[in-house]
Amino acid sequence: MDKSGRNEMKRRDLIGVALGVDPPDLVVRSATLVNVLSRELHPADILVKDSRIAAVLEPGGAYDRSVRVIEAEGRFAAPGFIDPHVHLESSMITVAEYARAVIPRGTTMVAADPHEIGNVLGLPGMKALFEEASAVPLRVMLRVPGRIPAVPAWMETSNGELSVADTRAMFDWPEAVCLAGDINPNLVLRQDQEQLEKFELADELGVTISGQSPGLSGRALSAFIAAGPEDSHVASSVDEIVENTRAGMRTVLALRPARRLEATHMMELARRVAEDRLDTRLFQLCTDDIHAHDLLHEGHLDHRLRALIQAGFDPVEAFQFATINVAHGLRVDRDYGSIGPGKMADIVLLDDLRAVTVSTAIIAGEIVYTDGEYRGPTGSVSYPDWTKSTIRYAKPLTAADLSLRPTRNADTATVRCITAPTGRGKKTATETELPVLDGVIVPAPERGINALAVVERHKASGEIGRGFASSLKLRRGAIACSVNHDAHNVMLLGANHEDMALAGNRLAEIGGGYVLACDGEIVAELALPIAGLMSEASIEDVASDLTALEGALNGILGADLSDKALINMNFLSLPNIPDYGFTNKGLVASDKRMQLVESVI
Amino acid sequence: MDKSGRNEMKRRDLIGVALGVDPPDLVVRSATLVNVLSRELHPADILVKDSRIAAVLEPGGAYDRSVRVIEAEGRFAAPGFIDPHVHLESSMITVAEYARAVIPRGTTMVAADPHEIGNVLGLPGMKALFEEASAVPLRVMLRVPGRIPAVPAWMETSNGELSVADTRAMFDWPEAVCLAGDINPNLVLRQDQEQLEKFELADELGVTISGQSPGLSGRALSAFIAAGPEDSHVASSVDEIVENTRAGMRTVLALRPARRLEATHMMELARRVAEDRLDTRLFQLCTDDIHAHDLLHEGHLDHRLRALIQAGFDPVEAFQFATINVAHGLRVDRDYGSIGPGKMADIVLLDDLRAVTVSTAIIAGEIVYTDGEYRGPTGSVSYPDWTKSTIRYAKPLTAADLSLRPTRNADTATVRCITAPTGRGKKTATETELPVLDGVIVPAPERGINALAVVERHKASGEIGRGFASSLKLRRGAIACSVNHDAHNVMLLGANHEDMALAGNRLAEIGGGYVLACDGEIVAELALPIAGLMSEASIEDVASDLTALEGALNGILGADLSDKALINMNFLSLPNIPDYGFTNKGLVASDKRMQLVESVI
Hints:
Chain A is an alpha/beta fold. At the A-B interface, helix 1, strand 2, strand 3, helix 6 and helix 7 of A face helix 1, strand 2, strand 3, helix 6 and helix 7 of B.
């Protein structure tokens, strides 16, 4: 199956089927159609020929005995959900496992930006991911990465590099659908030549330019949009959403992690839509980064849809956010995002509209999931060896490698401590006093302040950014992790430097992932050998390991896991989410100035 | 100015202006923005740089004295109106005159299908029209004709011919924006190879496929849409609109001629939108064919907008039909159809929103109309000689050439009489008895039945279709006309054959247009020497001649001019509008069978 939908059957072959001269391959009979075009519910028979819908008719027609008929009386038929913005790697599982998880949730297409694996393994890594994706029934479209590395080399060390020429070449992949937007808006406002060249390339190709405008308003927002970007998935308030909408920027609602939009925001938005008749055609839904256990237990776009409906949105309108609005935004509405004659036969059947419970999923006319049975490939997938063993240090880590000395001879030192937002809000760097013991500044776990180190892991340069963080608030032990957007160096966070070194060294042995150490012992781990980001294990196994990891984090290390703290930690590093990041170069002020800041004052 | 909007200034030049570092060229200050993106009204300053909008800001900012500022406090700023479906030739004036008429009405872009001149003069004629269009400030985009000639040669004789290769070549014109849809849907349902090839070409190029599905429903509608067409401008009832919308076909509301949609339809549609929350994003407005005097006196899209608002539509939603919805439908929404950062600076200022009274029009950042003063070229335009003298008969016409003899020797004969719809509805062919005098079947003007003849005028073949019609219902005299969609042969309609021959011969002398004859004398005429379709005179002169012509038609010839009968007559010939047409081959049954039918039984 060609995921792009090109080179498939010809539309002319649908004419005879629609007219009743030729038989359909499949009929979904007497469903209640979730019509995202007219925003109505109405009964319909859906006639499918090969990969496309040939006709949508009032029920009551008779079909030949040889035609496969799905009796859908009492069920709802909706267009398959489309996620416009995901990073497959963030779920830590293979694409096969991802597909097995999301298709039963109603998702039939995702647009994926492979910049996580791209930062670690460059173009070959991204090709390996899409090679795997080509074998799954889920339509995996390519968001061509907007910038690899995410930030200039003086700010952070990455491995992959994507030139403007490479970017142009990626648009020739059959799955290419848009220019991805996980970029630093300040680079645009500062008229970074390479970034603007990529916009102009996308413009020339006529593809959508995705963006992100965290907190931009007024003149800065106008400047950003004028330069090219057409959507943003990082709005964190209703006012921001309304301002973006007025300026023509599509809002991709990212309801998780919690730092973005919460249930109260959705209730406020639903109220403004109902009261002010605000147009919602520019609203979309996405899952972006979603850990395996959340995906397994909460769901995918179905989970976000339930949240919208519970917040007060009309269900059909909410479904538009996950179907036609996405298809319009990606400029693929001619083929995807609605159920109508000529459209691709990507259809989900639901038992309950408001509960978004999917009983059958059809992609390109094939039943890929029904009644609990997933019909895609389920065997294990093996990635090539060169995608593994990507954690490269100059030498084994010691506690001394990770610690900072005070600038003055004193009992305490003033440091800048990077703080992850609780709920939404920006990352900050707050000044605080920490004790000095044996000439080393030590963390204050009793006050929620941990030591932090980011170890360069691609080029074995030995470069380590050292500082302090208030994020997981470990009371004991340490965590090591190789999932740290976007360069995915190794982050060590701990109540003491010894456990940090121990966890970091173990992490290299298992090829990346997560390791917890406490009092000189490894207490939990999750191996993610593919690029230090993904496992070849099943989603159930990865989810179970993650749950165990969170249990140990909370129970043994005394971490504060409220507010999706673990996934938030994955973004602590990233300078693209304001106002600070922490890389192997140290603390980065990522506001308009964009500069390195000393951790010790 | 490049009408396509390509190759203009770069978007990156907008960044500095938006940020306030560089000055704008123009500011529209303190307008009430008709925001078709959020469907709101709110105050705004609009900053323009060169041809684009750099920023949309809350009012209150200060601008340098050197910046040109339009004080728009108390006025509304809306995106320039876009007409997705026009035939310039039908207004019978030059493009310069058309632009002068429509820009003060708020229209800043039209998508024009030049198939009228294309049927008469082929590709060179269409090039001449767009050559003229390139000199006017109005953005004239090209709807690449969907089929020239409109119907196979056995059904009607035309002159121009557009092959699939020609069609492909026209998509390279910088103004090309979609495949035009004035095609016969029956050809699609019958899987006409050439028509389907053109759809596949447009699909491959990623451009919109326009269509028309008059009265199609159920399986036939599904088959038509599945084959490719994405919009229809010929819906004639609210049920048809709803069925089209449900199937994903955009409805282009053509409120005139009256045979399509009336005020009561719009009231019913407005009610359904309000009560059922029917999604309106697939609704657009167009003017299609509009005679010079209607354009001058009623207006253009502003007239249609007033009608929608009076019918009960929310004004901002109605404005969406003429702006963003059209831009989405033509897939040019990245540049056109809304006021936002980065968009083309096509802006109209209105004194009154509900009355749609335009006081200023800006196109590509240039003020082209303000306070009654139009700033485009107003001098007369001369078309090349080869575009004229296109009325070619084999020999001068005589009454005998135009008359029919009975099949039997009797006092009366049974004939089929083509009847134009009153109000909306299909053209019919009703059987009736007519007297036979001196061996010739004569019309019965007292019963509203005229003689009809269509004289082939391109190749001087001498071919004449002869029959009877009940359309203008002339009580005396005859009308000759060379505007007869789509082949534009000469139509003669009369109370007697002698006046028909006289009017037809005079029509050839003046190079085409309209001629009225009564009792052996020419009583009115309007010369349309360019292809027999257009005049080089001013819109005021052409409108005045048309008004005089209608006066004479009604006063001297006793015609029934209710229900826009004159423009309806232009479509009497066309077999593409069901159920009948009348060509130089005679009466054509244009339903699914598509065959010639004898006029005399």
